[in-house]
Amino acid sequence: MDLDRAARQWRQDGFVILPGYLSEETLRPAVAELDLLFPSAQGFHDGTDPRRDRFLGDEFAGIDSFPFAATQISLLAVHDDLLRLATTLLGGDDLRLYSAEAWAKYTGAADYDQDLHRDYLNHTVLVPSTAAEFRQLEMFIFLVDVPEDLGPPHLVPKTHTANLDAKPNWLTRRALADLDETGFVASSHSHLYEREVSAAGPAGTVVAFELGTFHRGTGLTRPGGARYSMHVNYRRAAAEWGNRQAWADRSHEPAWYRFVAHAGPRQLELFGFPPPGHPYWTDDTLAGVALRYPGLDLTPWREGQSATRRAATDSDSR
Ligand SMILES: O=C(O)CCC(=O)C(=O)O
């Protein structure tokens, strides 16, 4: 699917499913490092991987967050193909990555079957906006094939949910044992489960959806099965209220230093690094950043500073 068509679909439905959007070649380095994060399906199910207990009983226990122990998985979260898609869907290239997670699920480890919901309660301090500049983009990326029995996400097209209020946010299928007095959970709109679209697809599939789109995780039923995916979130720079993680808080982790050594200006700008030519870059800050990140090639930022200086000298001498 071409990206303009994808953008039309995402505006219409609140999501677009791009089967196999990331090529096998693009995925390969990240998939090759999955074992640095998670047990294989076999290692989990035959009990030979000592890390397996972590995944039991809690559907979210299989989530690792950026920066990942596997540098290639960190690099996949900011791959050019994802940035191209995010730029098209969000209508601008002043992007920020506001969260990135890798997630392993194993059949039988936990109950992954969720109620329909939106994610905004831990992605913004406000509510989702559909204004082009303020949209928040969520992307599920399948690192392996995810057929129906390996728990693909299901999503409901916006045409069926456009009139729903900010509350309730979780729409349960079954009557609630206790009334939720906060109003965030309700057993209403159960007909929406019949409107779901499954995102089942091959490795490399990207499911791009807006923060206001109702969706849910589904259960894994395949015996001995495992699902590996990533969940990355982008927004435009101006939508500062959309956040999940403060990157500076993680920027003294070895995994962050390893990532930075492989990244360039475009990737680092996603985390708030000022671009080359920005007034932040002075002799002092360049020298300090060189000391902090000996693995980072600062040439683009040094060249940016020189270009800014030349432009200033030219305009003074006119
Ligand atoms: O992992 C999935 O397929 C969906 C999970 C989800 O929607 C969530 O946890 O909010």
Q: What would you say this structure looks like, in words?
A:
With 318 residues, this protein is α+β, with helices and mostly antiparallel strands. It folds into two domains: 3-161 and 189-244, q2cbj1_9rhob like domain (Jelly Rolls), CATH 2.60.120; 283-316, no CATH class. Helix content is 27%, strand content 17%. It is built from nine helices and twelve strands. It has helices spanning 3-13, 24-32, 41-45, 71-77, 80-90, 254-262, 265-269, 283-292, 299-316; strands at residues 15-18, 63-65, 95-106, 116-117, 136-142, 154-155, 170-171, 185-186, 197-198, 206-210, 215-216, 226-236. The strands form three sheets. The chain has a six-stranded antiparallel β-sheet. A three-stranded mixed β-sheet has the order 4-7-8, with no helix packed on it. Helix 2 packs antiparallel against helix 4 (71-77) and helix 4 crosses helix 6. The longest helix is centred in the last third of the chain and has 18 residues, at 299-316. The chain is globular, with a radius of gyration of 21 Å. The termini are far apart. The model has no long low-confidence stretch (mean pLDDT 96). Residues 114, 119, 153, 215-217 line the site of 2-oxoglutaric acid (AKG). 2-oxoglutaric acid binds next to strand 11.
